[in-house]
Amino acid sequence: MEDIVLVGASGLAREVIALLAESTSQRVVGVIDDNASALGSGFGGVPVLGTIEDAIVPGTRALLCVGAGSARERIAGRLASKDILQAEYATVLDPSVRNPGRCPIGPGSILLANVTLTADLTVGAHVVIMPGATITHDDVIEDFATLAAGVSLGGGVRIGRGAYLGMNSSVRPGSTVGAYSTLGMGAALLSDLPDHQTWVGVPARPIAGRDHVGPQLVLNREGGIA
């Protein structure tokens, strides 16, 4: 049995807790969060073990459950300073995930219900893919990217580091979503989306004045982790 400590008391953490409650090979033994003192003794039916400064419990693997990819990246840097290496991150897949091509999935990634991976694609580290997403042949999803529920990627798509794709958005085959960019909910991307931009609509177009910062700044806190 693989024991897992979740980093971040968030909605994503609740989903992982529910998922692993049915697992016979992995279990959640607790949550750590910088807002631990306000959470009390429990969260989602598992113990609150303290803050990130309390470090990971020996003999367990960590799983970053903060929603924003840039925040997951920053927290990974904090844990790296505590010698939490990539090999010590858990990878969590819902039993309904389809991966017939045995495509590689990086450490720390979370794939929820009914995600489909077809063939010859790569999912990086600390990637979150929400229910019902479809990833097709020759796609590359770089580290810390987030795909919301119902996302559909055509073949040969590249999703950049820390990018976010909103619910039910879709990407034309051969296109790229740049690093730390956002594709809005329901958008249809027909061309390349540059780094650090937000695009919305059908077809997707940029929103003026909405460029993003890199991982060194996190504007939106989630789960009490700044």
Characterise this structure.
- This protein is an alpha/beta fold and 226 residues long.
- It contains 3 helices and 22 strands.
- The strands form 4 sheets. Strands 6-7-10-13-16-19-21-22 form an 8-stranded mixed sheet, with no helix packed on it. The protein has a 5-stranded mixed sheet with strand order 3-4-2-1-5. The chain has a 5-stranded parallel sheet with strand order 8-11-14-17-20, with no helix packed on it.
- Strand 21 and strand 22 (205-206) form a beta hairpin.
- The two termini are 31 Å apart.
Biggest pleated sheet: 8 strands, mixed
Low-confidence stretches: 213-226
* Strand residue content: 25-35%
How would you describe the oligomerization state of the chains in this entry? single chain
**Order of the strands making up the biggest sheet:** 6-7-10-13-16-19-21-22
Task: Provide a quick synopsis of the model.
The protein is an alpha/beta fold and 226 residues long.
